[in-house]
Structure formats: C-alpha cells, structure tokens
Amino acid sequence: MRGELRIHLGAAPGVGKTFAMLGEAHRRLGRGTDVVVGVVETHGRDRTAALLDGLEVVPRRVVQHHGTRLEEMDLDAVLARRPQVALVDELAHTNAPGSRNAKRWQDVQELLDAGIDVISTVNVQHLESLGDVVATITGARQQETVPDDVVRAAEQIEIVDITPEALRRRLAHGNVYAAEKVDAALAHYFRVPNLVALRELALLWIADEVDTALRRYRSEKQVDEIWETRERVVVALTGGRESETVLRRAARIAKRSGGADLMAVHVLRGDGLSGGQVGAADRVRRMAEGVGASFHTVVGESVGDALLDFARGANATQVVLGTSRRSRLARVFDPGIGARVVQESGPIDVHMVTHREAGRALRLPRLRTALPASRQALGWVVALAGPAVATVLGVVLSPWVDLSTDVVLYFLATVLAALAGGLGPALLAALLGGLLLNFFLSPPLYSLVIANPGNVLTVATMLLVGVLVALVVDRAARRAEQAARARAEAALLASFARTVLTRSDPLPRLLDKVRETWALRSVALLERGEDRVWRRVACTGDAGDCARPDQADVDVVVAEGLHLVGTGRTLPAADRRLLEVVGGQALLALRGQRAEAGAADAERRAAANETRGALLSAVGHDLRSPLTSIKAAAGSLRDEHLPLDDADRAELLATVEESADRLTALVDNLLDSSRLAAGAVTPLLAPVGYDEVAATALLGLEGADRVRLEIGEDVPDVLADAGLLDRVVANVVDNALRHGGGSEVVLRASAYADRVELRVVDHGRGVSPRERDALFAAFQRLGDRDAVAGLGLGLSVARGLTAVMDGELTAEDTPGGGLTVVVSLPAAAVVVAS
C-alpha cells in the first residue's frame, strides 16, 4: 500500500516549517509510531536542532564532487530501515550530481511507493507554477522548484505562517540566518511588501487547492445544494447597451463581498436568440476582462435555466442580472427571465440591476420553440371560445345575416385556433363549430339531425381548412426553429474558428470553450501512438477523467487514432454533429501547432546553418594570420643561412608560441560556438569559487598582469561547471584587456539573494546603450577599426556558456567611464533557505 504524504507549506523562509515538522514527529513518536529522520536541515538554528533529540536520525550519504564534500539523504538506508514515518526536509532540494534521483521529491516518491509515510516541507516560492510571480515580487528567481502536482497529491497540506513583522523580528534576533547575512536579507528579500505578497500567494494557493477538493467532493457525491464556503458572483450579460452598467455593478458587489470570484456569463439560447447584436460575445468578453472577471459562454433552450444551471455548477452564491427591457404590456404575457430566475434560484441571492434600457422595448414576448406550452394553451382556449363567440354572433345577428355568413364566422374561429395552437386546437374548433352550426343555426334548429346534406360538406371543409392551416403553422414554426438553431450553431462555430485562427496556442482554449458550451466536466483530445497506447494531446477540466475513449461519455472520432472525448453527461445527436465539426477545428489547430513547432525547428536549423556559414567565411582571415606567423617564424628558425643570435631565436620562438595560443583560443571558441548552436553543451554543475576560477582563467592571458582580483573569501561558491566557467571568465577578461584601452581590469564578486555576481570592470571607451545587445552577438567587434584580432566570438560564447549553467551575462556602464561585464550564477548553497 502506498504511503501518505504530509507537507508543511511555508509562506516564506524562516516561518517555522521544519520546527512544525519536528513537533509533529515528536507527537507521533509519543503515540508509539516508528519515526525516523531521513534528512532535516537545521541551518544552524539551535532551537530547531534541539528538537532532533530523541528522534532516530538515519546517517547521511557523503558525496565527493570536484573536491567538495556534499551530504545527502541516504535513500537506500531509509528504505532498508522501513519506518512507518520518515521526515524529509526541503522537498524542492536538488540532489548532488551522481545521485539516483536528481530531485529530493523524487526520493520521496520512492519512499511513498515503498509504503512509508513521509512528512516534508516546502516554501511557496519553490512551487513551479509560481516561479515567475515570485521572481517579479522579490527580484530573485528560484532555481530549485517542485512540480505543483507533487504537492497537490499530498493527503495533507498544512500552511505555516506568521506575520511579516514577526518574521522580520525573528530574522533580526538571529533565529533565521547568521548575523552577517541579516542586514542584506532585511534590505532585499525580507522587505515587508515582499513578505505580504508571498503570504497572500500561499493563502490563495492553498485556498484554490481546498476549493478544488471541495468541487471534486461535490461532483463525486452529486451534491446540488449551494455551499456558501466562498462568495462567487455570476453576472448575466446580453451584450446590449445595459451590459456595461450591469457588469460594473456586479464588480462592485464582488469587491464588497471580500474579493469574491466574479464570473461573467453570456447565454446563447438554443433558438439562436443570443440576446444581443452581432459581435456581442466578443464585446462582453472584453468588458469582463476589463474588470477582472472570467468569461463563460453557455448554450441553453431557456436562458434562465441555463444561467441557474451554470450558477449551481459553479457553486455561486449570488447572481446579478439586469431588469427586463420588455414593456409592462409584454410582461403581462411573459414576466421575463429575471422573474423566472428569482422564482427558481433557491438559496442563491439574485440582484436585479436597473438601467436606462429597462421597460423601453415594446415587442411581444419571443417564442422559444415551435409551439411552446403557453401558445398551445392559448390555442385550446381559442378553440373553445371561438366557436362559442361565432354561435352567439350568429344567433344575435340571425335577422340580418344568412347561413353563409355564419359559416364564415366558424371558418374564422377554426383558422384562429390553428394559428394559435396548431393541429389539435384546429380540429377541436372545426368539430365544435360544425356541431354548434348544426344545432343552433341550421334547420331543424336545436337538433343534431343534419337535414341538409350540404352541411356535412361544410363541416368537412372546415376540418380540412383547419388541418391545412395548422400544418402550415407547424411547418413554419419548425423552419423558424431550425433556422434559429442554425444561427446559434454558426455563432458557436465562428467563435471556435476565431479561437483557432487568432490564438498562438489555441487547443487549450478551444477545449475549454467546448467544456463550457456543453457543460461537460472534462474535455480532452486523445491520440493513439504506434504502441497502441492513448496519450493526451490536450485536456481541460478534471485531468483524471481524460484517459481513454471507451471511458468517456462523449466520444467523437476526429481522425484515425485521434478522438475528441468528454465526460460529465451524454449529448443529443444534434450536439454530437456540431461537436464533430469542432473536432475538425481541433485537428486543424493540432496540425497548425505541430507545423509551427516544425517551422521553429527548421528556423533553428537555418540559424545554425547561417552561423556555420558565417564561421566558414570569417575563419579564412582569422586562422590564416596566426598560421602565417607560425610558418614565417618556423621558416626563419630552420634557415641555416640566416644568422640568428639567441635573442632573435627566443623572439621567433615566442612568436610561434603566441600564435599557437591565439590559434588554440580561436579553435576553442569556434568549437564552443558550434556546440552551443547545436544545443550539445551539457554542464556538470558543482560548487565552485569565483576566486579559484579567476586565478585559473588568467593563466596564459596576454596582459594578465593588468588584472587585479578583489574577490573576498566570504563570497559564496556558485553552482557551475568549472571548465565552462573558466572559459567564460577567460573570454570576458580577454575582451576587457583587448578593448579596455590599456587600463587596469578589476574582478569583483558579491552575493545577492540566491545569486552570486562577478563583475569584470575596465575603464576603456565603453559601449553605448544602443550597442549593448549587439555586444554579445557572434562576429561582433564593436568599433574594431584598429585590426584587433579575433572573430568576435568571445562574448557570444561566454553568454551561451553562462546560459546553459542557468546564469546571465550582462553589460553595464563603469562609473567614470568604461564597461563592466557581469557574470551572474546561482549560489551553490541557496542563500534563501527554509
């Protein structure tokens, strides 16, 4: 049986995750649970280290890497020990090179697979989905991350949090970092705005996870009641002129409800009457995005029912819609959507927003289907009342009109019943009219005996007329319904096509619109590979449902081996036909996406070929120069007739050596540039010091005596490939020496957050801001009119090598004139530790 994972999620470093984890371990140990410590990082905190007393600690595994001693959790020892619970600190930690797993969370997966429960810790800034947000807030990008799915899979997630002020006091008292790091931490990462933002991120992330779990439970248990665990406001928009007023009012309601979720809904009625003008959906979408609302389009035969179904599915607590634009006279026949929503909303609060358009329309209520129940009821009333009125008129007007006029009145009653209610009321009106005509107006009076055979023909003709008129009415209604549905389908297909044509990555949004339109729980595009295994090309909704076509409620074959599937409910045949068309659009989107990927690959190949061609065209001159010098010097040394003293011979040998060094550096740069273009550089990352690399890089550089090192011993090591970093520093320093105008070059290093920066400072003529970007391009020698040797690859290769080590190479002005090139790499030991 698989073990359970419990995670202590911290809002920021130093809030007490490890402390809370060790406290939980002691509580379980006191209950008799077998608990061991796989790995716990105390970071020199005495109070945290004190909690290790009384707990069994599995000795760590020692790894020697490039002369550095690294300690990691001994996964095999913990597996062999097989405790009930294992403590594994810092879930996002990167293991030492050569370990079985690259990440600690992968070690945790092995422990869970072995049936061992795990208690772990992680900070919110290490969640993979929040990396960009955290970097924007703090200015420091986290290099160690853990996939969100790993954290979401935990059976328990407990948030650990304290106020920003309390955390800063804890930091100032030396309970988080060593004294020499406190000032820098308080001034940068641990500023109050940063801590407030990180705290909000943690609370929102955990709230979303709780909300997802709640929705899953409601779906599994088929709970239809509204649980007011969180305010959600649904606003219905038609796209008309009143939509902006209604949306703004809904936004204010959501804000006053404590920042409630705001969802804008545009309903396309099943009869094609969307309630707005052409382009209404796009206009409404833009308005919703402007106030921070999510936008949804749904289809329903009844606008009110579709709106309430969406609100209940979203577990909404409030619905906002505008008052009816119908006139008072029209509302007598049909109270409108708002009235029906209020009557059927149940526990959902309904807000009716007044606007300038309210009550201005003079149109009669629209017919939603061919013959709705209200119209059929009216038809039966006309079928009963029409012949009765015709009879009264015939009796009252008998002194002045003859039987032919009475027949016309009954014909009129039959036609009115057919127009109002269709075939059934028309037949009733014809039969009732014939009987009343024969009883009250046709001799012999007050008898059902038909004395005149022509009356039989009259009744039969009335029946035939009623049937024919009713058939025409029914056919016209069906045609109108079909045309309206076709318009609705065309609007939907146009919306889907617009998504495919206008978005760079249309598949996720296309599937999301399919899920919203047909109210499905999940929608996926599945593809069967050559191994006959189904794989998800794209999926929206509950990913657990999108596995195989035979498990889906809706399965549409898009192409051979490609299916569009959905779960949540079955669809009628008409909707499946429309979904097949959407499947074709999904196929086009998929092919376009793959074609774009192929084009991007072709573009990369073309760029590589262009680089290769430029290399070949540039190499002729720059290789020929050192080769010519070597050949000339070697020829002079071999010439027996050329008198050379010791000084001349030494100078010629020095020329050979210098030219060979230049040739070696040139070939190294060419090879590195080619490897970078092909993506074939794989760094072996390990802790390395800037001072060691700088000393090595200066060996053999011409003019190295003009370089001064100002790198303190307390500067942290960086996580880099020593060989590649040596090349980076050598190229940057060589560039500074050759283009620095003979000035002294200074190397300084400093740490900030989890990065360590090396600055190569010269006081030459510098580079203008417009030329900074071109400075690192291949074959660039800016302002190089003095025949300085080289292909101009040095800084280009240096930037490429820095990038593969997850670093950055930038340029900035030197105060007082000159250029400073900054090498920024991640610290080997993360400065911001939990």
Euclidean distance between termini CA atoms = 31 Å
Structural class: alpha/beta
Task: Report the portion of residues in β strands.
Answer: 15-25%
Tell me the radius of gyration: 40 Å
Largest sheet: 6 strands, parallel
Strand order, sheet with most strands: 3-2-6-7-1-8
Shape: elongated
What are the low-pLDDT stretches, counting only 5+ consecutive residues below 50? 271-278, 361-369, 781-791
Overall average residue pLDDT:
78
* DSSP summary, beta strand count: 24
Q: Give the number of helices.
A: 25
- Binned, the helix content reads 40-55%
Explain briefly what this protein structure is:
This protein is α/β, with parallel strands linked by helices. The protein is built from 25 helices and 24 strands.
Highlighted features:
834 residues, alpha/beta, 25 helices, 24 strands, 49% helix, elongated, phosphoprotein, P-loop_NTPase, transmembrane, transferase, kinase
